[in-house]
Amino acid sequence: MSADALRAMPPSLSRWYEISQERITAFADVTEDWQFIHLDTERMQPQGGTMAHGFLTLAMLSAMSYDVQPEIPGMVQGLNYGFDRIRFVSPVRAGQQIRGRFSVAEVIEKPGRYNVRWDVAVQIDGTDRPALVAQWINVFEVAA
Length: 144
Prior knowledge:
Blueprint: H1 3-7, E1 12-13, E2 17-18, H2 21-31, H3 36-39, H4 41-44, H5 54-68, E3 75-88, E4 97-110, E5 113-124, E6 132-142
Antiparallel strand pairs: 1-4, 2-4, 3-6, 4-5, 5-6
């Protein structure tokens, strides 16, 4: 896929991912972030239930990206280069489903690689407001 083909790629949606309480608890254990808003279902019931860590929602972008990123002939590896912008807009409650909407914002072609900036929104099933919006940069290294 050429740089021009990447630029012309239409917005793409990942599949839906369930954010279960088990996934939230596992993420809490890995990151040692055991704040009650993520784990105490009884205490959080009046607020609509526990909520996922913002960084869990952000981390799900990796899985979502595999659903939408195109095959690039000669690709050696894809790298996470970072983010220009991240905003956590709405909480994701335990049991909700999320998916990513990816749009190519910019492609910079360099020798042996493409720098691709994606505009990403993580949608929550059944709501209008996204969980997060971000500008994410990937580097795709290609064989010469």
